[in-house]
Amino acid sequence: MSTSTTASVSTHILDTSIGRPAEGVAVRLAARAGRSAHHGQGGDWQTLGGSATDADGRCKDLPALPEGTTHVRLDFAVETYFEKKQAAAQQDAPALRDSENARPVFFPEVTITFAVVPGEHYHVPLLLNPFGYSVYRGS
């Protein structure tokens, strides 16, 4: 049983188009405190820092959340990942469906916002492909 006064967050990314971890994706972490007399619904977002996924698709060094955090935002910069992947394996790349933009990915960024409570750990995996994504609360 945790006695921590803050929540903690971890994430990983699986590229479902190849069934492998997505390496080298930049991830930015932001947090905000909940309702307050000053800010009504919630405080302003505070960017805490970032990381990038390793060869296992995991971010092992995301910053700690400040005390009082009630909402967390993970920003995944996925466009660069898919551009590099396509350049490295051009002959195996699927045909671009979004050809009018000449882009290898439909969603250039993925932003996930979720609520947290103190003392809980939140593992939030991202399942990713060039034309869609899915997230869930993992364990």
Q: Report the CATH superfamily.
A: Transthyretin/hydroxyisourate hydrolase domain
Instruction: Give the CA-based shape.
Output: elongated
Tell me the CATH topology: Immunoglobulin-like
Distance between the termini: 15 Å
- What ranges have pLDDT less than 50 throughout 5 or more consecutive residues? none
CATH architecture: Sandwich
The structural domain count equals 1
Give the gist of this structure.
This protein has about 140 residues and is mainly β.
Description:
Belongs to the transthyretin family. 5-hydroxyisourate hydrolase subfamily. InterPro entries: Hydroxyisourate_hydrolase, Thyroxine_BS, Transthyretin/HIU_hydrolase_d, Transthyretin/HIU_hydrolase_sf. This is 5-hydroxyisourate hydrolase. Pfam families: Transthyretin. One of its GO terms (molecular function) is hydroxyisourate hydrolase activity. Helices cover 8% and strands 39% of the residues. With 139 residues, it is mainly beta. It has one domain (8-135): Sandwich (Immunoglobulin-like), CATH 2.60.40. The chain contains 1 helix and 10 strands, in the order ββββββαββββ. The protein is elongated. β1 (8-15) and β2 (20-21) form a beta hairpin. Strands 1, 2, 5, 8, 9 and 10 form a 6-stranded mixed β-sheet that branches. It has a 4-stranded antiparallel β-sheet with strand order 4-3-6-7.
